[in-house]
Batch of 4 targets.
Target 1
Amino acid sequence: MRRHAPLALGAALAIAACGGETTTSPPPPPVQAADTTPLRTYAAARGLFIGSAVDRGFRYAGSDGVQFRSVLAHQFDMLVPENDMKFDHLQPQQGTYVFVHADSLVAFAAANGMQVRGHTLVWHRQLPSWLTSGTWTPTQAESLLAAHVSTVVGHYRGQVREWDVVNEALADDGTLRPGFWADHIGADYIAQAFRAAHQADSTAILFYNDYGIEWPGAKADSAYALLARLRAQGVPVGGVGSQGHFQYAGGTPSADVLAANMARFAALGLQVHITELDVRVPVPSTADELQTQAQNYQSVVAACLRTAACNTIVTWGFTDRESWIPSTFSGWGDALLLDATYHPKPAFFAVRSTLKNGG
Ligand code: XIL
């Protein structure tokens, strides 16, 4: 796999720019020093947060965690616990909450001037077995949902800027996705979760989060209808998160398609964020594939910049050393901005220059 040295690439670009045939025009400008400005600086200048998911089980706590943490805090101003705020992590036994790991991520964020996105309160996956193997009446399931949401949101009141309250409630054909909450409570679990979260922290922005809603289609239509209905009913939903787990090339929407789709959700009065961006390529990847990947990332950032309601882009990790992709999508990987040795890839430079220069 090709490695990318940031200074070498920056210098090569500057030299190439000076290498024309003309000899009569003014002398070429001096070679510019490579731009070392972090992503978060350019994002902030555009009123955007740029975030990364972080899994404590990864390098955060590992032997090379120092580099991981310093790159994370240098480049990003938002942190999303990749797993540590999921139901099975926070309430492994009924009524017993384990906050220590998520607390450490929240403390890291605070110490480094980073916002926190909470992920995720109500989902059909990563549920503890005491819950899924128990026998519950609908009323009991509603109480369990309300207790979890209010305890967790209450614990982090004032520390979590926004919550993914409900994650992936829709199936790919746009119908209600079956799962523990839908099966026990029915579709109303969604409204119940938002109401409980709002009661526990009225200042947090509450999100519906899903994948496959970045393009026109049955699922996006159904998410739109769901969110329109929730808004009409006065349910305190403030935003929609498009996860953005894309495949490179045709598996990533163009800036126009994505911006049009985001505008539709924004017209409901919602914030529209990119919450779990990664762009996977076949591994081992080629230089051409990584260039295409860079264009794909560029499209997503450009769409967000065109959308007033989009003020947050989160990537699902930041180094190819640590990503859920290889173990989930066999034969795919290299989906993030930095390679496995923390060197910026073309995608990093594409994101940074788009944040700097606009879409
Ligand atoms: C993934 C994590 O990245 C993995 O570490 C974990 O094993 C499974 O979950 N959509 C989501 C995220 O909302 O929570 C998922 O995260 C990726 C897909």
Note: The longest strand covers residues 271-282.
Target 2
Amino acid sequence: MFRRARIKLTAWYLAIIMAISISFSVVIFVGINRELSRFSVLIHLRQDRANQINLFLRNNGLPTPPEIQTADLESVEEARSRIISILGLINLSILILAGSGGYFLAGRTLEPIRKNMEDQKEFVSNASHELRTPLTALTSEIEVALRDRKMTAKESRGLLKSNLEEVKKMSKLSNYLLKLNRYETGRELPKTDVDLKEVVLRAISKQKVKTELTKAVVNGNEDALIELVSILLDNAFKYGNGKEIVIRTKKEGFLEIEDHGIGISKDEIPHIFDRFYRSDKSRGADGYGLGLSIAKSIVDLHGGTINVESKLGKGTKFTVKI
Ligand code: ADP
């Protein structure tokens, strides 16, 4: 599909360049041709006059001057056809150069679109895969229960409880997907002056966290920023080994969340913001690998940055600058 689009785009580039080049060639040729025609008229006039003078001299028995070689009409014709071939050659070279250059440029232009489509495909396949697991569990549990005619009320309640767990997992996933879609589509969020200190206080609510907060007013969307802090905090709890968690705000618009848990290895750090990425160590904890992608989209929508410093087995610190 992309090959065809690339060829089409190249054809468009080529058509535009050739239209310009041919129009210039036509203008140049018309100009030069007009000069050549004027020149051949001049040659005609000169030759006529020379003939008349020679005739007059001969009639009066006077010696005629030796014939002076002037440009003849043949060489004018030759010049005209040479100009046509030169212009043709120039146009052919432009066609070849513009064709190969255009093909290269079309490839460069389409590359981000191709990459985006690949990402989308991978995303849909990952999301369907994540949904299939709880759906399969639900289907088999329900089928087994329907075949069991002697099921007691207690067993039925147990089954419903387990079904509810699976439904909750799916609704959590769909919630994540909706949020990701909302923040990744890049639509402008309404922004006001927001104090990061208040954002943190609202996000932590009753959770046990050490805070070092100063007033830090930034231009942002309060709900999205609360979402961001909640995601980072949620991870600090999930991967923090129950050890102390510290949240700091700094008046320049900085926010830090530090834990002393399992940490992230160096080679995993570049991937943690990818959609559906989960490290092997975190498989036990619940999650879909979407939290940090949502966090990154929120930071991007605020034109900010998010950085991570981590040591395996020692802990992790996320720093957000809005
Ligand atoms: P999830 O937590 O649902 O797996 P996230 O996108 O929030 O997904 O995080 C991606 C991965 O980054 C996690 O699976 C985990 O391996 C790693 N990670 C994120 N935060 C921390 C943290 N505070 N400590 C250690 N690892 C972390």
Note: The beta strands are 192-195, 210-212, 217-220, 246-250, 254-259, 305-311, 315-321.
Target 3
Amino acid sequence: MEKDNFKSKLGIVAATAGSAVGLGNLWGFSYKAGTNGGGTFVILYLLAILFIGIPVMLTEFVIGREGRDGPVGSIEKITGSKKSPFVIAGYTGTISTFLILSFYSVIAGWSLHYLATTIVTGFSKFAAADADTAKFFADSATDLPINILFQGIFMALTVAVVMFGIQNGIERVSKIMMPILFVIIILLVMYSLTLSGFSEAVKFLFVPSELPEGKSLFSVAAAALGQAFFSLSLGMGAVITYARAVNDDININTITMQVAVCDTLIALLAGLAIFPIIFSTPGLEPAQSAGLAFIALPVAFGQMPGGYIIGNAFFLLLVIAALTSSISMLENTLTVILEKTKINRKVGTIALGIVTFLFGILSQLGLGFTSKILSFTKGDGFLDQLDKLTMIYLIPVGALILVLLVGYRMKPEVIRKQINNDKIANIFIPYIKYVAPILIGIVMVAGFLGI
Ligand code: TRP
């Protein structure tokens, strides 16, 4: 494959943090915190990032930079065999990013649709009753041609970046988008600081809470770990794909820490931006599941002073965050195609973009024409099925295989060379061998059994 490494350390952090920070932080984290009772979920999430997320991310950096190839090629190189069972993780990863992108672009398309509409009309039509807003959302979600159009525009944007490769496409765009994203979210939090509901939101997010009815501590922990994996883009080879383009003189330990901190910070800031708005608006509740961003917040934007600016800034934020994640997903699946065939990058990107778009239409169809949309995280729409398939099965299995690969197949000297820091390597090597697989395994089984 072509050599196309990142130009700067800042570019690596921007691209990898861009991959990590996405709808999962802004939309997923807040509604999962909301439905899992708040503080307890958040604390478990932070523990999951620290004890599982960070070691697994470093694992992927080690694999990608040592293998210097996409997820499949890197694993083949490290095991020295194309038939090694470890190679399965390369393929499950590729399939995961393909499936996730197919429905991610649907949700990103809604965000783009909201933005395009509310820039012109403002949010006043949402201000009235909840029911009307829900109806607007249901109508717009079932307005198939429009939604397919916006999904298509979003996919075209993604293709337009990935086509130009790592240095000229992904790195360049991430370096522009990530600072904008930071500025928008800080402004939103500053606005929320002025609201009466701010202290209630802080309490809701950070004070350990009673578990919601019908949920065990274990199920909340499993949700928190699933969210940590998804949010850091782990278990799918996405980090391997970027790591293959990281020069040898870059310290991957600091990059891992910086990305993890960025991702966590943005999720928490998103919570601090969103929940004060919810608590300050009469009639809105935090436990809203998926409707939080697309139903509850627009109601608030319609009622509050400055709602036009805040609301549009919020949807712009969603679109930017989704784009820097979607380019990483497309690049991941594409890399496996490019390493296995002789297709040229531009043609491959466009073809894969079209196939992903067409497959994504199934998610639109699975949602549309039914009112299930309003509860699709519990319902059985196609989008929901894909979400579960990747979250519960593909991602944890992928992560477990990658951890076992580094723990049991990679020579310790090679790991030490990549980590290039004795203190960290002395902790990392036994940890990845004995502790991480057990932690991942426990949560994986919990997910399978639906505990
Ligand atoms: N981390 C992204 C988010 O929080 C979503 C995501 C999951 C992702 N897996 C990925 C992004 C793989 C890029 C590559 O929204």
Note: DSSP finds 19 helices and no strands in the chain.
Target 4
Amino acid sequence: MADPEVAQAALERATEQRNLLLVYQPIHEARTRKVHSAEALLRQWRESGEIREASVITEAAEEGPELFALDSWCLRTAYSDAAHWQSHGAPDVRINVNLSPREFQEGNVHSRLQKLVAGCGIDTHTINLEITEVSQIEKPEETVEVLNELKKLGIELWLDDFGTGHSSITHLQRFPVDGLKISGEFVKGIVKDKRSREITRALVALGHNIGAKVVAEGIEKKDQLDLLLEWGCDYIQGFLYSKPMTVDEFEKLLSGERASRPQ
Ligand code: G
Ligand code: MN
């Protein structure tokens, strides 16, 4: 685990000077379009007032102790936002947080998560953790133990960008996976390209056959959605339904949904 003082200094630099924020991209139930959860994505305010990707920051943090500070900041911010919308009439809307594989090996993630959750007053089962670079996990047996401990808290594990280089079938065999997120790279071709279509259809079935839920990412068109519905995909994320939005916009979306629901 990183030296806490170093991590704290890094956190301050990252959050105060660099104007970080989280945006939320809704994940919808495929059939009903109801909001199921939201993926928290790190962004940065520009001086012009625009919001931009924060990849420069995340790449810089990847190797050093800043990573833990940054992840803790993301978790704390996401939890307090989720606590807010849960106490304002959306008790079941979960939150997906992206975590680096380093967290499971060096980051003491279990106790940090417990402390963070206790500080925000939300249930641990509000959280899904998304791991993208699962292939970089160097100590799989230890990681499986950590993941099983997290699952006892009700936290779900989702494999992100499933089917691409970093996240493959090997990892399904090894890790206690609750959900698969099928990369938009497959989804974008499913209408016109027979191979993309058959691969994506097989990935949805694969997820279901091992008892996992399936999210398709990057849905931009209605005819893509129609195919995914035909195959029984559980959730969808993509510009067709929602772009990433600020927490205020997300909470407005939730209240609009509640207002339109029959009493
Ligand atoms: O790797 P990950 O799935 O976490 O990446 C999510 C990114 O994909 C976000 O930055 C988001 O802006 C982008 N994204 C989300 N939905 C869509 C979509 O429908 N089309 C495209 N092109 N990008 C999307
Ligand atoms: Mn993700």
Note: The pocket of manganese (II) ion (ligand 2) is lined by residues 39, 98, 130, 160 (CB under 6 Å).
